[in-house]
Amino acid sequence: AMQPSTDWHLKENARDHHTSKFSSKELIVRRGQAFIITFNGTEQPEQNLTFIAETGPKPSKLAKTQATFGISSTVSKESWSAVLQSTSSNSVSISISSPPNAVIGRYKLSVQSTSSGSSSPASLGTFVLLFNPWSSGDDVFMPNNAECEEYVLEEFGIIFAGNKNRINSFGWNFGQFQGDILNICLSMLDRSLNYRQDPATDVSHRNDPKYLGRVLSAMVNANDDQGVVLGNWSGNYEGGKSPSSWTGSGEILRNWKKSGFKPVKYGQCWVFAAVLTTVLRCLGIPTRTITNFSSAHDADGNLRVDEFYDASGNHLNRAADSIWNFHVWNESWFSRSDLGPSYSGWQVLDATPQEESGGIYQCGPASRNAIKEGDVDLDYDCPFVFAEVNADCMYWNYDPATGKKTLIFSQSTIIGQFISTKAVGRDDRVDVTNYYKYEEGSTKERDVFKKARKKLGLEDKFDPTAPTPQEIDQKPDISGKFKVAGPLEVGKDLNLILVLANLQSDAKTVHVNMTAWSTVYTRRPVHEIWKDSISVTLSPKEEKQFPIKIPYTEYQQQLTTDNTIQVTALCHVEGGIQVLMQRDITLDNPTIDIQVLGEAKVNKEVDVEVIFTNPIDMEVMDCVLQVEGNDLLRGILEIDIPPLKASEKSSTKFKLTPFETGPKHLLVNFSCDKFADIKTFKMVNVTD
């Protein structure tokens, strides 16, 4: 039998297939496009060669996981084909093409000579086949080249967080082309529940981006399947890394593999979304992260979120529903042959384990166009995603002693604001809210909401938990709000003003119960920080202001790594209905500064300086600096920094040796006992 040796033309094929960023000794190509190989050891005339490409544990022609093809004069659009390029005395060069709907994954390629009858096929080796957004026949085809560059090839991302009053952002290293990441992504597919139940059928569906997107949305969270990341929203992250301390997906995916595929501790929504972005970009499906501010988690599917407060104004953690300060999910780009062309394009996938779908924690793909049009009966999970951006909010007073609840007020315009993603080719925020819904308060928007309610059977069903029309129409006698009066910074006292206004032409007596709690970004209360109550008489139409001061010393111990505080005032108006004011406050961390000292040149050492000034009047300890950046350094650099006295400035220097040219991003995370995860990034332009 022949023992051919194969030249995979790695450089040329990778350049033609947009796979040069993978650092692999194995051929990695995209489907629906030709690649060249040369091999020797065949004595036969070329016409007599038959090739076999096969993938998965039980390759079969029927399941399209095996293809057998001879040499032909033209490329076939429907099936695998081989076209002769050139021959010499002992070697032959062949151009091999796969169909644009081929199953993706690792293939074995063998060649057999037909004329010698029964000789067994000789192995040429293995290659990996990926989705091809540059090819017009592919389900993931993306006509705009700059978008392909961003959503498939870009390894740096920006994730938006904070709250609707104060959007902040941080960098993330997706790292989809790092060393072992592709292999880890492929083993993730082989660990899914679907694969474990029926490997052959699962592999035969791997030509379909909507199938893979759904399977991977389940695999990225640890629920059900020992997936990649274990979620934790308690505010206590002992036994793992706090969700806000990660700076990239590579470390998480490698830890998962290194531990023998045990879930990595811990993640929250942006970690799930970032890891899913890495995996899908790696496989060639254009993907981005999306942040939705004031995001509803509607647990019972009634397009309504209920929040409960006790008489003291404490936000009670008693409902499954919640309104998150922000939530991060994914959009992936592909066509929806199952729904029709008007539902193709961006599809919502969400790997954060919030609600079960089909019995497991997975979500999507939900067509973004279907969400905007209220077509919530379409696959998959449209009602949940629709509620995330559209639910109505009801705020209730709840008396734990009697179990009685009274509606305080309802709102239909606060959910789903400033929906954000990173710009293509720039480090800026782009607002995509108007792709999710019609303008808030417009008749079109209300019509879509009614249509969605109708499709879910909510219009004609009596709901005993819903407020009565009389309750909804009640008019309060006073209005109020919290105003910020001073800097919102960790380490400084928090100064607010409670503004109360009498809307009526007779005097009103008001008893106000106020609380402040530290929360996680999902607005789940963690520790009480402060409470106070006042009684006040407002003359007709009078407005009064009450300053509130919460000293740093009072909140410092209670703050979570999210730096979020919820302030609430529940006003009991004599002879009138209760009025609730609340404000979610995200405090900014102090800043940290990176300077590259000199020019960054490929394969030359350059010094980087990181500067941090302790802004508070006490010592900070346990200071650690964490640095990562693709093509700038390998792995993650950790530097311990000595304690800093009050107001002391620290300068830390380290060296980098960039190994690729072009615009690269350096990500820095600084932590100490008083400040969690101060993040920044710096674009470094590396030249020859």
Automatic annotation (TrEMBL):
UniProt keyword terms in alphabetical order: Acyltransferase, Calcium, Metal-binding, Transferase
Domain Transglutaminase-like as annotated: residue spans: 261-353
Residue positions of the active site: C269, H327, D350
EC class: transferase
Natural source organism: Mesembrinibis cayennensis
Record family assignment: Belongs to the transglutaminase superfamily. Transglutaminase family.
Entry keyword Zinc: no
Coiled coil: none
InterPro entries on file: Ig-like_fold, Ig_E-set, Papain-like_cys_pep_sf, Transglutaminase, Transglutaminase-like, Transglutaminase-like_sf, Transglutaminase_animal, Transglutaminase_AS
The protein's required cofactors: Ca(2+)
Reactions catalysed, as given in the entry: L-glutaminyl-[protein] + L-lysyl-[protein] = [protein]-L-lysyl-N(6)-5-L-glutamyl-[protein] + NH4(+)
Note describing how the cofactor binds: Binds 1 Ca(2+) ion per subunit.
Pfam families on file: Transglut_C, Transglut_core, Transglut_N
Entry GO MF terms: metal ion binding; protein-glutamine gamma-glutamyltransferase activity
Protein name per its UniProtKB record: protein-glutamine gamma-glutamyltransferase
SUPFAM superfamilies membership: Cysteine proteinases, E set domains, Transglutaminase, two C-terminal domains
Keyword NAD set for record: no
Positions annotated to bind Ca(2+): N390, D392, E440, E445
PANTHER family for this protein: PROTEIN-GLUTAMINE GAMMA-GLUTAMYLTRANSFERASE, PROTEIN-GLUTAMINE GAMMA-GLUTAMYLTRANSFERASE E
Enzyme Commission identifier(s): 2.3.2.13
